[in-house]
Fold these 4 entries.
Entry 1:
Amino acid sequence: MYEPIRTKSVHTPADHADDFPHRSREEELDIQLAGHLAALLAVTDELDLGVAGDRIAEQVARLRGAPPARHAGRTDAPALTLQHRAHALAGRALVVAASRADTAVAILAAERMDAHTAAIAATAPAASPRLVGAL
């Protein structure tokens, strides 16, 4: 009733699957973690946090095998926006570091999250406490 399939399925493995390089899960996590840390380093440098930036740069260098490129590119973003961005990047780095069991980076990322949370709390305008349902 049905005609047999005459072409190869898209789900069959390729004949030359070994022709392109494969990376292990650990290598992929290293690349991802180095990327998150490099982005965090850029924001940290923009906030002029020298010591924190140096610590992040050490971890990027360890993961990549070479020191990261550092520049003083400014985005003219408000400090509060940069703090929020840095907090989010540190959170992403923490998740990946925990996934690959990199304790040094996990501790560094958690410290950066705490520092940025404190900076956000210090610079954000204090919200007046309101009761739910109050006018």
Note: The first helix runs from residue 25 to 46.
Entry 2:
Amino acid sequence: MVKKSKKQQPGGTPATVALTAAGVPFTVHAYEHDPAHPSYGEEAAEAMGVSPERVFKTLVADVDGSLTVAVVPVAGSLDLKALASAVGGKRAAMADPALAERTTGYVRGGISPLGQRKRLPTVLDDSASAHATVCVSAGRRGLEVELSPADLARLTDAVVAPVGRA
């Protein structure tokens, strides 16, 4: 079951607090997380009844020694070479999960591009602009936030570039 709310709920996450503080319209989607599901993003899309092309996962990569956030559709994967190029780097690799968790303040499967403990350079896949709204993690497993891709890019100071692949 998916619960929807446009108002900030008590006990919100740093992501929802940041959205509320910015005055950005958003919708929270909560669902029962199944720890046995093989993909956090696909689980979210299924639970919400939303196309996987509109649900975006937040990945943390190491680009030339600096952590960088990539936000790409759950229906595809991250092109590390394109990510490095988008931020003026040469080489990218997925970051150590424990380092990503410590740096962002979120747990794997619940990392949001919004409200991170340490603001990291962010790249949003350009496919987001094809949708009126997209969904990203709201900061914990089983919780997504839906907002316009323009607001997401603005609030994260994201570079918009083709970094996802089908």
Note: The chain has five helices and eleven strands.
Entry 3:
Amino acid sequence: MRRRTVTAGNLEEILQATAPAADAGETNRPPPGAAPAARQDHGLRTEFEFELPRGYVDEAGTVHRHGAMRLATARDELRPQIDLRVKENPAYLSVVLLSQVITRIGTVTDVHVGVVERMYATDVAFLQDFYRRVNSEGHTRAAVTCPHCEGGFEVDLSGGRLGES
């Protein structure tokens, strides 16, 4: 078996070439030109809102704190592995990964590596923990204990003000 070297430029080509072919006897395919079928809601939450501790400051000086992150796919986790920046510095993996799954920050919808690079370290750390919770545990809640009364309760890490529900 011959090994192939994969670069970021030909990843899409390789993924398409190795994708499983559709069954020839597939009968559920709509006829050409037909309207797409409405998607059914299966109760799976795929996008999660968050509020950054400090906020992203864009070139105009506007602070953006509210955003959204989608669930990661296997492709999202594989793609950074071939990025040369990640190969040179493995710590850069989280920057590339976050740039792929953050769908918006405030009014910024084109979230790319440069945006994540310009974020404050506290916001990047928050987003790394948020990513882990959303993709590993499927929710944004955390169990905490009050330091004064030692009572246990849950908080939602996605943001919001204290006392809001």
Note: The beta strands are 47-57, 63-70, 102-105, 141-145, 152-156.
Entry 4:
Amino acid sequence: MPRVIGVVVVLVIFVYALVDVIRTDRHQTRGISKTAWIIVMILLPLLGAILWFIFGRPYGRPAARPVRRQPTAPDDDPEFLRNLEARRRNQAEDERLKKLKAELEARERKAGENPPDGKNKGAKPGFTAGEAKHGEPDPHDTDELK
């Protein structure tokens, strides 16, 4: 019975060490190459396993493998959607600014058509530019701000 337990223990150590060698990245093995460690493990099962754990296994925890991102469709990528929304906002703001600039230029042209003596050509009689009718609030009145 103790002989069977000994064989099982040696077999478990051998299989664990062999699987550990196979799963270890070839750049992380110490001493000799990964292929050489596998050959040593097959030729000298118990001694190879012990040598692997002492001399060949990488230090500490294995380095995390870089996560490969699968390409995603643009409508599934949150970063793309954020950039798209920012571009839409910028485009809307640009259009708004162009519209305001065009309105300002139209007002300046209209103001340039009025004669410099202060009289408007189509103005109602009795009112000058900037005056409001009595009883109507002046849109430029700043009394509320004072």
Note: The mean pLDDT is 78.
